[in-house]
């Protein structure tokens, strides 16, 4: 009888913990790069509550998002999300570049209280452009498809010079914390590449729109509930 009581108490405790955390849910997330010439840096994906948002269009980018948009690192945004505690269920970074026409799939965890998904990655070669899904709704069942736009972080001048662009194509500077007079200062829909000539006065190469320009959207994301 005593063992049965202990077992009952244990089951009640486990049930209470599950109720507090919410029932776990799992989603298969597939990202496809649908640009002609841009690659995505390592892709950050997170599941979270409505109280969390990566950015607001029209506002200044956070310092953490600035680092991602200019240099491709997800570490600072990850740390910021971790500080949100129970409002965030899962944070993952898919390593490596995702080239034009390529897809990658991963599994994301959520629960009955966490019903939002966000994603962000830098586009390279660009100065401070990133692809993002900002607080999209997770499907209760089946799947949902999102087409994502490219955003300009407004933190670096869009000079298209290789010396100011990181990655294998250019190998230039990544994040530059010093603000420039030509920065826009707020997040907005990116207007792509422009014909700025072949080189500046110092002979630094300027990338051309024929190869690297795009028209939104830049990515397709399919989110499928698997459990």
Structural domain count: 1
Tell how many strands the DSSP assignment holds: 10
Low-confidence stretches: 2-20
CATH topology title: Immunoglobulin-like
Rg over C-alpha atoms, rounded to the nearest angstrom: 21 Å
Count up the helices.
Answer: 4
- Portion of residues in beta strands equals 25-35%
CATH architecture heading: Sandwich
**Average pLDDT reading:** 90
What's the order of the H and E elements?
HEEEHHEEEEEEHE
Outline type? globular
Q: What's the name of the CATH homologous superfamily?
A: F-spondin domain
- Helix proportion of residues, in percent? 10-25%
**What's the level 1 CATH class?**
Mainly Beta
Distance between the termini: 37 Å
**Main sheet summary:** 10 strands, antiparallel
Structure description:
The chain is an alpha+beta fold and 227 residues long. The chain has one domain (23-225): Immunoglobulin-like. It is built from four helices and ten strands. It has helices at 2-21, 63-71, 75-82, 209-212; strands spanning 24-33, 39-40, 43-48, 88-94, 103-111, 116-124, 129-137, 143-152, 188-189, 219-225. Strands 1, 2, 3, 4, 5, 6, 7, 8, 9 and 10 form a ten-stranded antiparallel β-sheet that branches. Helix 2 packs antiparallel against helix 3 (75-82). The chain starts with a helix and ends with a strand.
